Amino acid sequence: MLNPADFDQLLQSRRSIRRYTDEPLSRELIDRLLTAATWAPSAHNRQPWRFVVIDSAETKHRLAVAMGNQLRIDLSADDVASAIIESDMARSYARITGAPALILLCLTITDMDSYPDKKRRRKEWIMAVQSVAMAGQNLLLAAHAHGLGACWMCAPLFCPDVVRSALSLPIDWEPQGLITLGNPAQSRSKTRRKLDDVRMLLD
User: 3.40.109.10, 1.10.490.10, 3.40.640.10, 3.10.290.10: which CATH number matches 17-53+102-184?
Assistant: First the structure.
């Protein structure tokens, strides 16, 4: 059985790492991480997650450019200064193309329960979102356990159609997040709110 202290250490030492070495990751290692992701709990045990593995420079470039172009459109509509837009685009491009591997997390509601009313359909979709998020957390912890750095990027949520088109995804695959992966080239620290600030005790 896993030592609880070791598990606590795994959780508390994980960081969001955004810079990596150039060392590639083997498909075998990536598959081990994805296998860990698939052991997450899911609503009705429907396992609505789908994973897209991206490790070619060409595909990373294509995705980064497509997402960057949409970012420019969105920020321009917000009247953001052009210098800030270009800086944000450059940072996003560097994060996406600078990682040895990317895992795009998607959901599909194909196997989820179907209801005639909008309210319950929405709840079912939210349960699928939660399931994919739990799979992503498993993946992040597995990456850390293997000595890798990883970071969850939420950007695909803002341009799902762009991501789907750039990667030629099935129509029912809804992009949720992009996890960058690699051997870490930085170290980071982090803090957490005190437990008393986020906990309510009821008698």
Answer: 3.40.109.10
Domain borders along the chain are: 17-53+102-184
123 — phi, psi (to 5°)?
-65, -40
pLDDT in tens, 141-199: 999 999 999 999 999 999 999 999 999 999 999 999 999 999 999 998 888 999 999 99
Measured CA to CA, the distance from residue 151 to residue 196 in angstroms comes to: 27
This prediction has a pTM of 0.94
Residue 114 burial by CB count (10 A; 0-12/13-18/19+): exposed, middle or buried?
exposed
| Beta carbons within 10 angstroms of residue 151's beta carbon | 20
